[in-house]
Amino acid sequence: IAHESGVHKISTTTIKEPIDKILNSLSKDTNFTNFLERSCKENHLKIEDV
């Protein structure tokens, strides 16, 4: 009888939740959002594309 190894795949939700929390807190940080807007303007990018 073949025995499967206990390899667990990391679900995307495991990774996504902490990233969502980080992005949420960054979006409330005016220093970060000002930097992001300035960087987009300097590089001719739309903030929606970032």
TrEMBL record:
Q: Which domain of life is it from?
A: Eukaryota
Name under which the protein is recorded: 7027_t:CDS:1
